[in-house]
Every structure is written in C-alpha cells, then in structure tokens.
Automatic annotation (TrEMBL):
Record has Ribosomal protein as a keyword: no
Protein name listed in UniProt: Uncharacterized protein
Entries under InterPro entries matching the protein: PA_domain (IPR003137), SBT (IPR045051), Subtilisin-like_FN3 (IPR041469)
Gene Ontology cellular component list: apoplast
Protein family membership: Belongs to the peptidase S8 family.
GO biological process assignments: proteolysis; response to symbiotic fungus
Subtilisin-like protease fibronectin type-III domain span: 277-372
Cellular compartments annotated: Secreted, Extracellular space, Apoplast
Ranges for domain PA: 68-142
Residue ranges of coiled coil: none
C-alpha cells in the first residue's frame, strides 16, 4: 500500500519483499478437468486420487459464522464435516499457515488457499502443516465456482516441484510496504544491505505483480534488487559519518540540547543545513517549482579510476551533474558533486516522476534512484 513505509530516519532499513526466479509449483486438479497452477512447500497428499472438496463455509462449526469459516479461523471448522477432505480457505485476516493448521486440527486431508481480491496474483510458497496449495484470486474463483456447481466436488493437489528460471523475476510482493515516506519524504526505501556496500541492479524492470505486468517504482523497490556478488565490489560508496547523522537531526529540527544524548558530548548544529544534502544514495525532491541543487559525495573503495555520470531524467525535469566526471587516484579518496534539478514547465502536480543517476568506470555501475514531484516553493 502506498505511503506505508516506516523508514523515517536514514539509519532505519526497510527491506522490500520481492521474488526470485525460482518457484515451488504445485497444481490443483479439479474433477471438471481444470488444472490450476499454485505454489507450496508442503508434503504431498498421501494417495494420488481425487479427494472430496469442500469450502471452509461448508465445513462451518455450529457456533461459527460463515465468513469466519470461509477464512478458516480458529474454532470455525467442524471435524465431522472436514475430516478426510480438502478444505478450501480464503486468504485474509489470519495467517496463511494458520489456516492450514486449523484445517489439520479438524482432520482435513489438505487445503487449497485461495487469494482474496486484495492479494490478487501474489502466491507464496509456505511450508504448510498439511498438503496444501495457494492459488491466485482468479483461480480461486474457479475453484469456488466448481464447488458451488456440484454436490460431489472432487480435487487433487500435486506434489510441489522446484522450477528454475521463472519469469518475470523479480517482482514486488503485494504486501510489501511502499513510499512515499509520509514523515521524511527525502528518505527513500532501501531494499537490502550487505556489509555496508550496497549496490543494486534494476536493468530489467521490476514489476508490481508478475502476472499483471505493471512496472514498479522506487517507492516499492528503493535502489533495486540486490546482486550479492557485485555488492562486494561496488567501486564507489556513499559513506556516512556520525556527524552526518547528527546534521540530519539538525536539519529535521532538533536543537543541540536534544541531540546531545545521541552524541559523545555537546554538539553544535551548523548554521545552515538541509536534508537535501544528506549523503543518501537516493535523491528525493518532493516540491520542485523552479530549480533545486543537492550535494553528494562518493568514496572510492576499489582501484583507481575515472567515473562518468549518466542520467536518466525524470519526465519534465532537466538534471545536470557538476563535475560530470570524477577521477580517483587512491583507494579511500572522496569526491563531492552537485546535482541540479530544473523544472521544464511551470506546474503543480502530486504525481512523482522517476529517474536515475549512475556513476560508471565501465566496470562498476553505482546507481542512485531519483524521485521528483512538482509543486510548492523552492
């Protein structure tokens, strides 16, 4: 959901939930001939045969509501109705694996977990306590329609198998929190951190949902999906000192007295400081009317070399970098640069536009997401 990230300060790390190019697929086979792809890490059904199929609502305990039984909530299912059958549970309100646990408690042979509309196409391979499969919202509707069409519904859940090289991948999980940051808009979501050397890759667009094909934004994935091997040799890093963090507090409105408990002693805030100049790898500008300039610095943690700046401009924004090349003669050298954003037209909109700034020496690609929205006074 938009605006749900809670990384209100730069020392708070949020990790986006996204997929890999590997799935643990299982199939739900219905007696009417439909074969629906699902996912699971559970054990297979004891026998390869069709089992009686029943919804949680049809297995409702006497003192439970139909809605609670369909969700397979605790104490909502009846043992006599569910025993030996595959119970269909609707996703939502309670944990995915707990639904299977509740079905197992009343003797169910297996469970089909059907996504609700909010979960859409996002299915997750869980180690359920009984044979189970999770299916998409659309496929879940097909399962429920089949059960409602007959008095003798039958179904089977195949054993899970690992499938490699699945596409599209990665894509963002529906439940993963998204920006914009409602408290500190200048701080963008971070996807992963390895040994303080983060370098992510988004050469292939990351999707919101792998089946719908909608492209995600940095509000979902931050700097992108981590590539661990390359993260160990990033070339350049945006380094931060304790004073950088203290100055962030100054720019956020904290005075010296309020900051002292976080520092080694009395700390005097600079006469002028801006969150825009906090040395975050990402750059977020919430209200651009005319032009804004920000300062960043990068440290060389690799071999000597020269890096050139490459910019993919957000729509309606011109972006310039000065200097446009940085030469590092030694490991540990640190260089500053200024990025200037200018609106190409005079307007106010709440829509965010996205771009990137990448420093590269031909071997390393040090990428920073750019997020800009028009409006307000600079």
């Amino acid at each position: 959901m938009d605006g749900t990230v809670t990384n209100n300060a730069p020392w708070i790390i949020t990790v986006g939930a996204s997929t890999l190019d590997r799935e643990f697929e299982t199939f739900v086979e219905l007696r009417n001939g439909k074969r629906l792809q699902g996912t699971s890490l559970s054990s297979p059904l004891p026998e390869k045969k069709f089992y009686p199929l029943i919804t949680g609502e049809q297995a409702k305990a006497a003192n439970a509501s139909a809605a609670d039984a369909l969700l397979c909530k605790p104490k909502s299912l009846d043992h006599e109705k569910a025993k030996g059958k595959v119970v269909v549970c609707l996703r939502g309100e309670t944990g995915r694996m707990d639904k299977g646990y509740q079905a197992a408690l009343v003797g169910a042979a297996g469970m089909i977990l059907c996504n609700d509309k909010a979960s859409g196409n996002e299915i997750i391979a869980d180690p359920h306590v009984l044979p189970a499969a999770q299916v998409t919202y659309t496929d879940g509707l097909a399962v429920l329609a089949y059960i409602n069409s007959t008095d003798h519904a039958l179904g089977y859940i195949s054993a899970p198998t690992a499938k490699l090289g699945t596409k599209p991948a990665p894509f963002m999980a529906v439940f993963s929190s998204r920006g914009p940051n409602t408290v500190t808009p200048e701080i963008l979501k971070v996807l992963l951190l390895i040994l303080s050397r983060t370098r992510a890759n988004t050469m292939t667009p990351i999707l919101v949902d792998g089946r719908d094909g909608l492209e995600a934004t940095p509000f979902s994935y931050g700097s992108g999906h981590i590539r661990p091997n390359r993260a160990q040799d990033p070339g350049l890093v945006y380094d931060l000192s304790i004073n950088d963090y203290l100055n962030f507090l100054c720019a956020s409105g904290y005075n010296s007295t309020m900051i002292e408990p976080f520092s080694d002693g009395p700390y005097k805030c600079p006469e002028s400081t801006s969150i825009f100049d906090f040395n975050n790898p990402s750059i977020t500008i919430r209200q651009l009317r005319n032009s804004v300039s920000v300062i960043r610095k990068v440290k060389n943690v690799g071999l000597p070399g020269t890096y050139a700046a490459h910019v993919r401009e957000p729509y309606g924004i011109s972006v310039s970098v000065e200097p446009s090349t940085l030469t590092f003669e030694n490991k540990g050298d640190e260089k500053s640069f200024e990025v200037t954003f200018k609106a190409k037209w005079d307007g106010v909109t709440e829509d965010y536009e996205f771009g990137t700034l990448t420093w590269t020496d031909g071997r390393h690609y040090v990428r920073s997401p750019i997020v800009v929205a028009f409006g307000g006074e600079n």
